[in-house]
Write a structure and sequence with these properties.
GO terms for molecular function: ATP binding; tryptophan-tRNA ligase activity. Catalyzes the attachment of tryptophan to tRNA(Trp). Its main location: cytoplasm. The protein folds into 3 domains: 236 residues, Rossmann fold; 129 residues, no CATH class; 93 residues, Tyrosyl-Transfer RNA Synthetase (Orthogonal Bundle), CATH 1.10.240.10. The chain is 45% helix and 11% strand. Strand 10 and strand 11 form a beta hairpin. Helix 6 crosses helix 20 and helix 7 packs across helix 9.
């Protein structure tokens, strides 16, 4: 969840995600197939006044962002949160995440930004003195870029007691074998490192402590393991699970689509399509081509369950499973269900209710009876910036990045010395065009220097690939714009110092100085 690097770890054959690594992700498209990340372009039209990072496909993927977009359009509560591990100076790569948090705040969301000092100490081995040295710099840049602390919250993990209490509760829902599978932890992994993961899960769910609401976590794709685990933990803490059902027998997530297909085809096999029988559906599922596209083993399991149900009607309903509700909450849920319902030990079936209405009902009952009611957090994923020297931009390689603290003249010089996607000679450039898609300097325009003006980014790209723009002039223009940006940003940082001094956030840790 914190802005970090990426490397190879357990999770997929060709693409692997590790929040504490250092390698790049070569093919973002593989993330859609391997991890279920969805293309952001599919939801872009649903976002009011999308940020330029969204419009330019720098934010390329999402997980369940429609919840947030819907809340944004309907003026419903929503939140955005991200964390920053203070391992070095904040740089222009971090600015993307700062901008994403600030933009969501400007769209009406509750905004949260945190210093992941517990993670930095446990996972990276930084001393508290080193962490303190960098924490202030991240906060000043965030404020300078437009974060409104009066309408948002800034905190350090180590100083937030409420966060740590939530982490303790979430720890009861996780286990070591899960951490081993997700993160590759082993017997040599220290307990503090594992504890820092649970703390990050609490960070991700922290915006919902006052009330459940859609929450987006803007991150690089290397942080997706944290997002997936947080979504799982959010579900595990819920009092009730709401699913679709078709009979008194229970079908799992893989089996329900098969049963749904059988119900939808009832006109083809049922003596009375108004009341198809489970045995009739079982017979149909065993007919030729009835279940094309479904796994044979899954179909076989569904057939067996339907046969066991016998002549019971196959009838759609919403099912509320009791996960860990109190007796009072379960009784309250039963009372709140209108229309026809059937109560079983451990679940309730409702026949006159939509799935959406059922979700809202379950959430309301849970919150009224002391539960968290967490909505599974959403996420958006941005591309990594290429380092100025090629490869990934990294805080640990000064020449690869431009720090937000760099002297403006140094920023100018770094851009002038950057690798480009140009040809070997000016003649070849004019004839063949440049390779803007592989150019760190073009990325500076797209990610930062063009600002909100898409026409500028498009002009630079078009002139480059058509051979009208040579690298020398392009870098000179970018270097001048970078110098201007750093001058302006650092002036605003100085103005932000007074704001930061007035905030209730600890800058000097009281922990051991080791």
């Amino acid at each position: 969840m914190t802005d970090n690097d990426t490397t190879q770890t357990a999770g997929a054959d060709d693409v692997a995600l590790d929040p504490w690594g250092s390698s790049t992700i070569d093919d973002y498209r593989k993330l859609f197939e391997e991890f279920g990340i969805e293309a952001f372009e599919d939801v872009l039209d649903e976002v009011p006044t999308p940020h330029y990072l969204m419009r330019r496909a720098i934010i390329f993927g999402h997980r369940d962002y429609r919840r947030v977009a819907d809340a944004m359009r309907n003026d419903d509560p929503f939140a955005a949160l991200s964390g920053f591990m203070p391992t070095g100076d904040p740089h222009i790569g971090h600015k993307m995440v700062f901008d994403e948090i600030i933009w969501h705040q400007q769209q009406g969301g509750d905004a949260y930004a945190l210093i992941a000092d517990l993670e930095a100490h446990a996972a990276r081995g930084l001393t508290w003195s080193e962490i303190d040295d960098h924490a202030e710099d991240y906060l000043l840049s965030l404020l300078a870029l437009g974060f409104d602390p009066e309408d948002g919250e800034l905190y350090r993990q180590s100083e937030n007691r409420e966060l740590q209490d939530l982490a303790f509760e979430l720890g009861a829902e996780a286990n070591f074998s899960e951490f081993e599978a997700i993160y590759g932890f082993g017997g040599e992994t220290d307990v503090s490192h594992m504890q820092s993961v649970v703390t990050q899960m609490a960070d991700i769910l922290y915006p919902q402590l006052d009330e459940p609401k859609p929450t987006v976590i803007p991150v690089g794709p290397d942080q997706d393991p944290h997002v997936r685990l947080a979504r799982d933990l959010a579900e595990r803490t819920r009092f009730f699970k709401v699913t679709e059902a078709y009979a008194s027998v229970a079908f799992d997530d893989d089996e329900r689509p098969v049963v749904r297909a059988a119900y939808d085809a009832r006109d083809a096999y049922a003596d009375d399509p108004e009341t198809p029988r489970c045995t009739e559906a079982a017979d149909w599922l065993q007919s030729d081509d009835a279940t094309a596209g479904f796994d044979d083993e899954t179909v076989g399991s569904v057939v067996q369950k339907l046969e066991n149900a016998g002549m019971e009607p196959l009838r759609p309903r919403v099912r509320f499973f009791d996960r860990q509700a109190t007796d009072e909450a379960f009784d309250a849920l039963i009372d709140a269900i209108d229309g026809e319902k059937r109560v079983f030990e451990g679940h309730v079936d409702a026949f006159d209710m939509s799935h959406e209405t059922a979700e809202d009902l379950a959430l309301g009952v849970e919150v009224d009876h002391g539960g968290y009611g967490f909505v599974p957090p959403s996420s958006i994923y941005h591309r990594f910036m290429t380092g100025l020297t090629g490869g990934k931009m990294s805080s640990s390689i000064p020449a690869s990045h431009i720090s937000l603290l760099d002297d403006p003249e140094e920023g100018y010089d770094k851009v002038k010395a950057a690798t480009t996607g140009g040809r070997d000679t000016a003649e070849e450039q004019r004839e063949l065009g440049g390779e803007a898609d592989d150019c760190p300097v073009y990325e500076l325009y797209a990610y930062l220097l063009a600002g909100d003006d898409d026409a500028v980014a498009e002009e630079v790209y078009s002139e480059c690939v058509n051979g009208e723009r040579l690298c020398g002039g392009c870098k000179e223009q970018a270097a001048e714009l970078m110098e201007e940006f750093l001058e302006d940003h650092q002036e605003k940082r100085e103005e932000a110092r007074e704001v930061l001094d007035d905030l209730d956030i600890v800058l000097d840790s009281s922990r051991a100085r080791t």
